[in-house]
Amino acid sequence: MFSQFFKKLSLTQQVLLMILLFISFFATFFFFYLSNNIDNMIANQMYTTMSSRQQPIVSLLKSNLLGAGDAYDAIYKALSSDNIQTNCIVSKDSKSNEMQITILNPDNAGNVDQSLYHYLIDQSTAMVAKDDEDMQGMISNQGIQYYYRLQQVQTANGVIVLVSFMDDAYPQSIRNTLVESTVYGTILAFCIFIIIMMIWVFSIIHPLNQIKSYIAQVKQGKEVELHLNRDDEIGEVAKELVNMKDELQKQEKVKEEMIHNISHDLKTPIATIKSYSESIKDGVYPYGTLEKSIDVILDNANRLEAKVHNLLYLNRIEYLITSDAEGVVTNMKEVVEEVVLNSAVIRPEIRIITDVEEVFFDGLLESWRVCIENIMENAFRYAKSYIQITVRENDLQISNDGPKMPEDRIDALFRPYEKGEGGRFGLGLSIVSRVVKANKYHVKGFNTEDGVCFRIYRDVPKPKKKPNDRKSWRDNKAHENKKEQESKDNKEDLT
């Protein structure tokens, strides 16, 4: 209940509530715990004070000097000047054999009720009977609190009890002074704490409000900047937000450019199909004969179908791979040999050199076939005389002797519909990048001495899986059949 209420509050309200709870806790602690400790500390201090003031008298009593001439006068004067506590002697009367009390400094006794003296006599009698050396405590008499201390003294004339007591006027003044100093000091410390807390809270809330305002303005499409000179988590969040905004803007530009490129790339075959169809309808054959004109239409329709298929594949590839490829491996030697066999007719004059080991890559057979086909298509487009394919454990390289790539354009080749040499647009290498990354591999292009090379690799090799992994081959085969059916369905939809 409280947690739900707390979550609904703003950060400022949460901080203020925590401060209020802290104040309440501190007040409870001070008035109940600290107050009792102060009382106990003062009481102990009073007993200690009375004990220290009793020691000279105890020494005189033991030496039997009390009451003897000049020594007595000196001690009496000293006792008379004691305005804090009253000192008495409780002894047994030799005549009546009863306990009686003698006040050593009567000027300090004031208007003390006789019942207090009777109580002290009774306590002294009980202490002597128990043979206790000392006793201390508090008693309320006539609405006044008294601290008292009894000490048994062995003298030449027998056992006597030195009794000292004081009212709570002096302890109360000490308590008030101590409490006031504690309260004032605490209030001062608490005020300083509150100020520091508010400064700290403001230092957190203010940048958060800046971030909130920044996000709101970015949502409205405004050009705004966010500058927070902080190295903590808030500063890191601000930097990530700025980076995210820049990345989103970059992606938006790429998206707009890609849409423009796609529309431009699809416009030509559509315009050709439309123009040729209208001409044939009018009885005109642009390419000389009806058959040749229809072939042009079919050729452009196939181009259009291939581009649409690539777009669909590009958007679905990561989902297909991650959902179907778990635990599946592909024999890359067989894939490369199949692609080479099928693509050799594209440009028969290009020599294909293979150096392929039987190794297994993680991922579906079809996705790797599409990946290698796209790299080979790119290689055939630019190769002059040869294409070389090398396959090793977790490493596949396809190179050609075509023109070298501009160094500043290499990374851009893997973006969707990036314009290449000759103003062409394509999705082939973008599909390659998606396939490779989805299967936890890396891909890069680089220039060689003879031309260009594309490399697919993995930094940390995984244990080689055996070719007799029936599950892997079964899953690959099932997935191939599934993809063939989907391809047929796509063609039917296009038709």
Chart the SSEs and their pairings.
Elements: H1 2-8, H2 11-63, H3 69-80, E1 86-92, E2 99-103, H4 114-130, E3 134-141, E4 144-155, E5 158-167, H5 169-219, H6 233-281, H7 290-324, E6 329-331, H8 332-343, E7 351-356, E8 360-362, H9 365-382, E9 386-392, E10 395-400, H10 428-438, E11 442-447, E12 452-457, H11 470-494
Parallel strand pairs: 7-9
Antiparallel strand pairs: 1-2, 1-5, 3-4, 4-5, 6-8, 9-10, 10-12, 11-12
Helix pairs in contact: 2-5, 5-6, 6-7, 7-10, 8-9, 9-10
Structural class: alpha+beta
The overall average pLDDT, rounded, is 78
Can you identify the CATH class of the largest domain? Answer: Alpha Beta
Overall shape: rod-shaped
Q: Which radius of gyration do the C-alpha atoms yield?
A: 51 Å
- Provide the low-confidence segments as ranges: 466-474, 490-495
What name is given to the CATH topology of the largest domain? Heat Shock Protein 90
Q: Can you say what the CATH homologous superfamily of the largest domain is?
A: Histidine kinase-like ATPase, C-terminal domain
Beta-strand proportion:
15-25%
Biggest sheet layout: 5 strands, antiparallel
Give the number of helices. 11
Assembly status: single chain
Order of helices and strands: HHHEEHEEEHHHEHEEHEEHEEH
Helix residue percentage: 55-70%
- The strand order across the widest sheet is 2-1-5-4-3
